[in-house]
Amino acid sequence: MSTKLKDLLRTADLSKADIELLLDTAAKFASKPLRSKKALSKKTVAIYMTKSSTRTRLASETAIAHLGGTPVFLRGDELQIGRGETISDTAKIISGFCSALIVRTFAQSDVDELGRCASVPVINALTDDDHPTQLLADWLTIRENFGKNISGRKFVYVGDGNNVATAWLIMGATMGAHIVVATPGGKWAPNSSVVDAANKIANKSGAKIEVLNDVKAAVTGASVVYTDVWMSMGDSESDRAEKMSALKPFMVTPELMALTSSDSIFMHCLPAHRGEEVSAEVIDGPRSVVWRQAFHRRTTIQSLLYHLTRGDLKGNN
Ligand code: CP
Ligand code: NVA
């Protein structure tokens, strides 16, 4: 029996074939954004966010418009959900008015519940645990730079073991890549359940997963160095001083980039804090692809909406 992926709730929901299809279509949308301008014609897509966003909101609203649809932006504090209406009731109402729901919030369990209760596709646009739409843009950017043959290349995430690090590990494992995550040990390392999940996927895909504390060893010979903010949305301010001090050696500097391969690129999901996780010379320098990466948030969300609403994705089950 063939299965159909209804929602994108986690990076792990996507198979390699799904990702290849999404990236192929996204590459087409990059050169011709209006090529499927009737796909969402006369349809509305809700975007519900309880956390800040610049790129994901802009990318989602423009992607929906390019597909001929109308975005409806819903702020968490303006919905009745903020006054105690249940997630389940909210999901039913959104499903009655809209053809899909893009959601950014804190708890992954809330997005999972929206997926269960909504009859329309639900897309995770970032939770405390994961950031699947970001990784689609990242992987398209990687493919543009290195092509589809990634054998012998090392892709390294440096910094906080957060939601983006999780998505990096799972996406890289699915794509059969050599993935390295370099973080301080203990509290700021990726969750062991995430590393176990990545290794399980890697056993089938042929990926190689490494989680290191030695940042210099990690980036030596790397094709990609990727980092993210050290304080994520929802992180406790009481941890700030301890976290900044633990992460200091993980700042991406020109000295660190000098250890990478001669054709290496620097990536960052943005927003960036120059002087914390990355120096200005690196993010504003010639190896940085962060603006192309940000542009691909729109092309990949457009592709995701297109294929998910048509029922083209198969998922992993
Ligand atoms: N990278 C990303 O998700 O950016 P925003 O928080 O601006 O949406
Ligand atoms: N890890 C960051 C990513 C922002 C796009 C956060 O969750 O705030």
Automatic annotation (TrEMBL):
InterPro entries reported for this sequence: Asp/Orn_carbamoyltranf_P-bd, Asp/Orn_carbamoylTrfase, Asp/Orn_carbamoylTrfase_sf, Asp_carbamoyltransf_Asp/Orn-bd, Orn/put_carbamltrans
Residues spanning the membrane: none
Keyword Transferase annotated: yes
Keywords carried by this UniProt record: Transferase
GO molecular function: amino acid binding; ornithine carbamoyltransferase activity
Domain Aspartate/ornithine carbamoyltransferase Asp/Orn-binding: 152-307
Protein name (Swiss-Prot/TrEMBL): Unannotated protein
Organism: freshwater metagenome
Upper lineage: unclassified sequences, metagenomes, ecological metagenomes
